Amino acid sequence: MTDTFVIVGGDAAGMAAASKARREDSDLEIVVFEKGEWVSYGACGLPYYVKGEIQSLEALVSVTPEEFREERDIDLRTGHEVVAIDPDDRTVTAVRDGDEVVQSYDHLLLATGAESIVPPIDGVDLEGVYTLGSMSDGKELREYVARARDSEDLQQADRGPACRYLEDCTGPVGVVGGGYIGIEMAEALAANGFEVHLFQRSDRVLTGFSEATSEAVADHLRDREVVVHLGSEVRELADDGDGTVEAVVTAADRVPVEAALIGTGVRPRTGLAEDAGIELGPTGAIAADAYRETNVPDVYAAGDCAEATHVVTGESTYVPLALTANRHGRAVGQTVTGTPTEGGGVAGTAAVKAFDVEAARTGILDRDEAREAGFDPVSETITAKSRAGYYPDGGDVTVTLTADRDSGRVLGASLVSEYGEGAVHRSHAVVGALEASATVFELENYDLAYAPPFNTTWDPVLVAAKVLGGELR
Amino acid sequence: MTDTFVIVGGDAAGMAAASKARREDSDLEIVVFEKGEWVSYGACGLPYYVKGEIQSLEALVSVTPEEFREERDIDLRTGHEVVAIDPDDRTVTAVRDGDEVVQSYDHLLLATGAESIVPPIDGVDLEGVYTLGSMSDGKELREYVARARDSEDLQQADRGPACRYLEDCTGPVGVVGGGYIGIEMAEALAANGFEVHLFQRSDRVLTGFSEATSEAVADHLRDREVVVHLGSEVRELADDGDGTVEAVVTAADRVPVEAALIGTGVRPRTGLAEDAGIELGPTGAIAADAYRETNVPDVYAAGDCAEATHVVTGESTYVPLALTANRHGRAVGQTVTGTPTEGGGVAGTAAVKAFDVEAARTGILDRDEAREAGFDPVSETITAKSRAGYYPDGGDVTVTLTADRDSGRVLGASLVSEYGEGAVHRSHAVVGALEASATVFELENYDLAYAPPFNTTWDPVLVAAKVLGGELR
């Protein structure tokens, strides 16, 4: 009899698992339950959709439901919410329009994803308050942008260089959160002529990156007329009396806004797993082994609902990002079809573009986090040219590199440059070093590609390794 | 008494050693003998100087002789040719204007560099035949370009898209050799309005890269109106009767030219070492251990005159490139001042820009070379998008990845993309894998940075690893 592989959640991890399983086994029965109507979509593209660089939500979909059903022979059931798992009976119960379906499984993958964290403050439910966790969130926000622009009859070409000083500037709007979603949305909204106020609780944006990167990005945001409020925890979103947001309130300020976007991170959707007795790990996400199997045999977890193992610390970590979801989902698809495959660890690598600046981070940069993992972190920050000094154009690349004092082991890096000058792709070298547990002395000797249009003879990553190595020697 | 560190050759390796030694030891006596007048110059920048993107030769000099002498307290003796080494007496003999100087040393570094290989054919000494090994070569070629352009009264803006069909096209000129120097010079000359004929003995350009890269670059050269003659060994440079080149002659063709550039590689300058009983390795370059010490105690060799150890094969190899020269020179400077420092291996990593295309290669790609080193090479070539499919602009990245069938170990890669779309910096990931002797399965799990403006969720390097891993599994 044919095995049945049931998947809960039809985004990156779920559909990567389904597709891989199908490629490996043409007989396997594959059933995917997806609560919404969209599957396999690039949520990372939503800010660019809101910005207007991407014309339709459909463009974010890499494979359509019809293609999954017809070309890949996957029993994809959209509009089905799984409400219970019975690991003893090996069944899941799904609901659609009030009707229950009970589906048995041989292998089960939980790919329930994450949901936006909404801070516990007054006003988050007001009209004009948005999040950006789902396709429908993106649609709503894009519609708001289009309405606001129409009502102001504002063309992008009319925007002055200092929008907030102009009479016909759209907005203002508030963005709550200075992580990568907040920053990408600040760009998306400012590019549409909005006066944007970015509120960040911490004293710097992109707290997961180095301070040098945070400063470079914040400076660039300010250059582009985004008002960056640091150390500004939002206390309340104020009601205009008619149920619509009219201001963002912090301890120090009351900033009038016409709309607010909340981008304060996500948390794993774990309720279903918890109810079924599936263990969560120390991070609060679903715990899974190297093969992504949970404490319950034949039940796997992958993507934004699950933990992963950090390649530097060897400890559990929660880094909900697209590549991990894809990779872990794919590994599960391979494992359940007979080739046990490890999903690999995560290095906490992330990239962001903010207007004309790009930045990446990888590994452990936070001193406390490094110390907790038993390291004695030492960091150096250098700035070097993105191309040979004599070569036309180019700019600066600023690299912060962190290593363990005793062992010299590379712990992490944060890089920032103009967009197109390679901070993000250069981080690939550091990821290679992290994956190999290489020392800064080894990294210093990496034979990286060099030619004048691409770097100085020592790529900025190598310059950072030289300087940090010099300190540790 | 103070030690004396003598260096023969004042370019990358020599001056990196001198500078590092000075930083580590302010008392050391440091003497550098340089045959010419230029030191520490970026020879890799010469094509861009000839092209006209760099306005002066001086711009290629990172540190001037005066700065070395005055700011770094280095006894730099330009115009001094070292003619003999006596390892027993620990002296070198240098000549300047016929006068001999004998200098004793405690540590000696040979950094004599490489010289252009000129094929043993008739006509290489004719007027109008150039090489590009030195600053003076670059100067001569730039002067030729300027003269030719003046005489034709050709402005770059006047150039039609198909120069060779225009009456007022400058040239034609022949470029002999389809390696990176030949290709960079084809760009430099074509950009100045010359009709360029590129002659390549092999059936593809950039033979050290993958076939896919070679084809992409050759296609792009043709798009830019460079006439690419493949499988065209040059038999003769024909004399116009007045001692000036008038044609490039191959077995199949006789192509009229007004000038010819020979870019057929370099060979190490080893005469001085050989005369002193210093051993050469199997590649014909000076042999040195991990610390760059030769068979003669306290005599080191670094840069384009010396071999290095290949990180993949562990065997001696000869890859004369700028980063290795800098790194090995620097390591020697550190070693002779009391901190024994390994120079690190080489992966044969190289990068090239050809008009609007960029390419990189690293590791072992040649099947025969891989087999000789005991591997069973398997390759896959994939093409993926440089940015998320829905993200504006971007282009294709083509990656060839080679691994050993049995072990899965990554052996090498070749990448090509539009300039700015990251083929070169993405190769950093593969270099990391090579330096760590990682398998393609490990590379597939590298947690590389992802965001829509920079790659697809799986960076093209990861796509290549997935596909190749699938074949090996």
Descriptive notes:
The structure is a homodimer. Chain A has about 475 residues and is of the alpha/beta class. Chain A has three domains: about 5-115 and about 265-335, FAD/NAD(P)-binding domain (3-Layer(bba) Sandwich); about 130-265, FAD/NAD(P)-binding domain, CATH 3.50.50; about 360-470, 2-Layer Sandwich (Enolase-like, domain 1). Helix content of chain A is about 25%, strand content about 25%. The model of chain A is unreliable at about 155-170 (pLDDT under 50). In chain A, strands 3-2-1-7-18 form a five-stranded parallel beta sheet. Chain A contains twelve helices and 25 strands. In chain A, β5 (about 90-95) and β6 (about 100-105) form a beta hairpin. In chain A, α1 packs parallel to α8. The interface between A and B is large, with 73 and 73 residues.
**Helix content range of chain A:** 25-40%
- Show the largest interface: A-B, 73 and 73 residues
H/I helix tally of chain A:
12
Q: What is the rounded distance between the termini of chain A?
A: 63 Å
Overall form of chain A: globular
Tell me the major beta sheet of chain A. Answer: 5 strands, parallel
Report the CATH superfamily of the largest domain in chain A. FAD/NAD(P)-binding domain
Structural class of chain A: alpha/beta
Q: CATH class of the largest domain in chain A, anyone?
A: Alpha Beta
Total count of strands of chain A? 25
Based on the structure, what is the oligomeric state of the protein chains? homodimer
Write the layout of secondary structure elements.
The structure is a homodimer of 473-residue chains.
Chain A: E1 4-8, H1 12-24, E2 29-34, H2 46-51, H3 65-70, E3 75-78, E4 81-86, E5 91-96, E6 99-104, E7 107-110, E8 114-116, E9 129-130, H4 135-152, E10 170-176, H5 180-190, E11 194-199, H6 211-223, E12 227-229, E13 234-239, E14 245-250, E15 254-256, E16 259-262, E17 266-268, H7 271-275, E18 299-301, E19 308-309, E20 316-317, H8 322-335, E21 350-354, E22 357-363, H9 367-372, E23 377-385, E24 396-404, E25 410-418, H10 423-435, H11 440-444, H12 460-472
Parallel strand pairs in A: 1-2, 1-7, 2-3, 7-18, 9-16, 10-11, 10-16, 11-12
Antiparallel strand pairs in A: 4-5, 5-6, 8-17, 13-14, 14-15, 19-20, 21-22, 22-25, 23-24, 24-25
